[in-house]
Design goal:
The protein is an alpha+beta fold and 269 residues long. It has eleven helices and 16 strands. Strands 9, 10, 11, 12, 13, 14, 15 and 16 form an eight-stranded mixed β-sheet that branches. The protein has a five-stranded mixed barrel with strand order 1-2-3-6-5. The protein has a two-stranded antiparallel ribbon with strand order 4-8. A hairpin with a 3-residue loop joins strand 11 and strand 12. It is globular and about 55 Å long. The relative contact order is 0.12.
């Protein structure tokens, strides 16, 4: 069957498979603004995989998958690359998100035309080969992708093989410097300053994680019901890039990079 014939039903498949018809995903995309704005849908095919999962397309265009954090570990990175390579030459329908980046690439949602159409970002996350991450957006354009992390996380598969890192495990965190990590711990203190807020997971003088929250992100957290009063003492998961200064630090990129593990009920106590 010709590629064009395969692709004719894809607009409906794209809406069904990547959640464009889900109210929560539409709301998230609107809230994230320009970074999540849905652009053109176009037909193409995969010619190769570039650095950090860049899609090299037969049209000569280059793109990266939206809402996806490419793995840092070499073994898992190779597995993710091999998984994507299995779709080389397959017809794709790509929907652009936001504006081009500095390298002329669009972030895209992508569906591969197989016997059972495959959501590329969803497939990588479900296989444990990538994290769902907002990247340059304030929040995930497709929040439903986060739910796909549950199975590989429970099975300790792929990027979840080591489990989450304890916020008090300074040695492990320092070993992750310059890389993405998911960290779990209890917030012991919250220090609000004019320019940023500090979430500390260990007592003064001890080594462990500090999370910095820029003023704008702190304001967004407040809109989600997260404040010094509601976060202090709560068990949370933090995701982001680990840096080191006087100790390991993660600068919280957006509201969806903090998850209250104890649930919403804890926030109303």
């Amino acid at each position: 069957m010709a590629a064009s014939a395969c692709l004719r039903p894809f607009p409906a498949l794209l809406a069904a498979l990547i959640g464009a018809n889900l109210p929560q995903d539409r709301a998230a995309a609107a809230g994230a603004g320009e970074a999540c704005r849905a652009g053109e849908s176009r037909e193409d095919s995969l010619a190769g995989i570039g650095v950090r999962g860049e899609l090299i397309l037969s049209s000569g265009r280059r793109a990266v998958l939206s809402d996806l954090r490419w793995p840092d570990e070499p073994v898992i990175e190779a597995q993710a690359r091999s998984w994507l390579e299995s779709f080389r030459g397959a017809p794709l329908l790509l929907r652009e998100r936001g504006l081009e980046d500095r390298w002329g690439r669009h972030r895209v949602d992508g569906i591969a035309a197989m016997a059972e159409p495959v959501d590329l970002a969803g497939g990588l996350i479900d296989a444990g080969l990538a994290h769902a991450a907002a990247g340059e957006a304030d929040s995930l354009c497709r929040p439903a992708l986060r739910a796909l992390e549950a199975a590989p996380r429970a099975a300790g598969r792929g990027v979840w093989a080591g489990g989450t890192i304890a916020a008090a495990d300074a040695a492990m965190l320092v070993g992750r410097a310059g890389r993405f990590a998911v960290v779990e711990g209890r917030i012991l203190s919250v220090g609000e300053r004019p320019g940023r807020t500090y979430l500390d997971f260990v007592r003064r003088g001890e080594q462990g994680l500090t999370v910095t929250v820029q003023k704008r992100t702190w304001r967004i957290l407040a809109e989600h019901g997260l404040s010094a009063a509601t976060l202090r003492g709560r068990l949370v998961k933090i995701r982001g890039m680990v840096e080191t200064g006087r100790g390991p630090v993660i600068d919280l990129a957006g509201a969806e990079d903090i998850e209250v593990v104890e649930g919403e009920r804890a926030l109303r106590r």
